[in-house]
Amino acid sequence: MKTEIISIGDELLIGQVVNTNASWIAEQLNIAGIEVIRINTIADIREEILKALQEASGRAEVVLITGGLGPTRDDITKNTLCEYFDSRLVFHAPSFAYVKKLFGDRGLPVREVNRKQAEVPHNCIPIVNENGTAPGMWFEKEGTVFVSMPGVPFEMKAMISNYVIPELSKKINGLQIIHKKVLTHGVGESFLSELISDWENNLPVNMKLAYLPQPGIVRLRLSGSGRDRAKLNIEMDEKIKELQNIIPELIFGYGEKTMEEVVGELLKNSGMTLSTAESCTGGYIAHLITSIAGSSAYFKGSVVAYSNQIKTSILDVKEDTLAAHGAVSEQTVTGMALGVRKKFNTDFAIAVSGVAGPDGGTDQKPVGTTWIAVAGPDVLIAEKHLFGKDRQRNIRIAAITALNKLRLMMINDK
Amino acid sequence: MKTEIISIGDELLIGQVVNTNASWIAEQLNIAGIEVIRINTIADIREEILKALQEASGRAEVVLITGGLGPTRDDITKNTLCEYFDSRLVFHAPSFAYVKKLFGDRGLPVREVNRKQAEVPHNCIPIVNENGTAPGMWFEKEGTVFVSMPGVPFEMKAMISNYVIPELSKKINGLQIIHKKVLTHGVGESFLSELISDWENNLPVNMKLAYLPQPGIVRLRLSGSGRDRAKLNIEMDEKIKELQNIIPELIFGYGEKTMEEVVGELLKNSGMTLSTAESCTGGYIAHLITSIAGSSAYFKGSVVAYSNQIKTSILDVKEDTLAAHGAVSEQTVTGMALGVRKKFNTDFAIAVSGVAGPDGGTDQKPVGTTWIAVAGPDVLIAEKHLFGKDRQRNIRIAAITALNKLRLMMINDK
Questions:
Q1: In this complex, do A304 and B286 lie within 8 Å of one another by their Cβ atoms?
Q2: What is the pTM of this model?
Q3: Residue from B401, B369, B403, B351 nearest B187 by CA
Q4: At B403, which CATH number?
Q5: What is the pLDDT of residues A345-367, one digit of tens each?
Q6: Does residue B304 share a domain with residue B373?
Q7: Chain B residues with beta carbon closer than 8 angstroms to that of A283
């Protein structure tokens, strides 16, 4: 059931509002097994709306329209719909009764503009708005369904969930779509695609793979379609199991998880605690960890040692070590990890020291040079990385890489 | 200059990714005085791309395309562009040199797929990608400009800012548009609009005001248009001077500055140093400060004290204080500020302790309760705030509010 979304609103075209409505609708339709072929964002202008409706009718079986139904003058959608569907406005008593109730509940007087909002084209099925004044409208023309809804998110969402998707589902017979995400860290998109190319090439025709890269992370999205949801689910899980055997060390999680969530769960489930000592990441690792609700169960805190003096006075790194090897060195970063682990009395400690940039690089230690150490109850590891030139990106990638090191240590400890 | 944005990507049509790229581009074009007439989101399918290009060429003078240029096989945009522009791929040495440098800097081998990424249609102007492997492409066909860019936000953004908008601006003649932003903290959007309503109502017809709220911050964007750029600039500065007299204490900066940049400049210019002691903000203040290049000149570090034990052992908060008043109290937060200031030997110190949520609230200290302290050479202040229920938002607003307190202390000290 090919569906097009038309978002109407000048505020979207000047970038003042991000079109989260369209993403939300697309997600809901996808879950319901309805394919979105296009999202079209247009201005609140009669000609633009007419053109967009005309174009959509040529390629989609369902056209979902949001926006342009408010009481203010820039909203001309309803009259344009009348024109397109060769219709006239009629008063819709049930919608007006709803408006009166809504205003009554809030102790507000009903105005003339609100009475006008209860007028709908005579040849549509009005959809009652449970949360606002403008009703939705369901039209059918030459085999295509058109649904017009308000742009206010919670008004639109109730209509989609309670009316539009149930009605559309009645019209569909069968095809299910399932998406599964595999989260990887360690190699870039192009190298990853080489590693798994045989597996990817041998995917059955009803499964497709997409690469969704982020700094330090590549998410793999496997999309499958089929009439038997349970069977499809099992087939996809088998494919993912194959993938696990090809790149076991690169996969850190599944679905919508973040690295900090995965690490947090490992710590929580094992009853172990963590502290961090951060130089170039400047508190970002602590911030990621503490962005998870309940992290105080396993995270005791961090020392952001942005000057050498703090590395010695608080983290007990020896002045000789700093003098001999510098702040960005194996010796210093392991000293930081051991120091914070002892001071904070935790099971694990992460330490990072590097040149985030844009300045501070040398020939020996160019911008991006980063030492990461993880200290555990029995093991101490330290690794040197060379990230890129962009400060924010270096901070982000260093943090993800450090958390992943801790994850691997915890898993291998088991 | 009518512009259409085409966003290519299956992930957008299933609602997995919100199309923030299109909003960002629309905002940048709007600021540059370029009108966006449509945003079209389509699938990574040859026929869809060809149709969308054809349609756009009929209504737009400029077509900006994002997405579909990665090295993996789900990206078929480049071949489709060749087909549409009747072109053949040729190797582009400067782009490949950039790729080699990028990979070389990171110590990674250049692969065959990356070499292929440096191939571009022979009849386009390649746009060097400063942050990635896929070059952008600028085409002109029958009077319409087409620009294809990667979908990775920071790669695309650099191309738009550094190449596309400057080139498009050369093509526009006449009407100048200037935007100036005034950054405020302290009151919400609706109260702010009441405070400045007289001023706003008396703006000349060629100036418009927009409110751009973020957690803890409301940015005011004044947009003016006129043929004489210098004169317009002076007129707008006069209006902003009027505004400064109405809400002096609420304005913390101008333009694209962030709170952490403003505070960083104050510290840098005065030669003063800062440390932080963070409980509920969990390192986020340190992260904001250290996201600024050169912050090591004034920031010595932070103690993230996520457990009471660290508050006493590292920050020297007295156990009696914690027992008598709790972690979220004036006594504890001032103890944290004084403790970190002394230990880190800095001029100023910020401390925050609160209930970020969603759990941990009590009747006396509900979720959102936050104590903020700032200690300076001569002054110690502490303030209680009640923020909202959302954890991420509370962390963000607490950090901005704390930085602003430091800013006010430094300004009033002068």
A1: yes
A2: 0.75
A3: B401
A4: 3.90.950.20
A5: 999 999 999 999 999 999 999 99
A6: yes
A7: 278, 283-287, 290, 302, 304
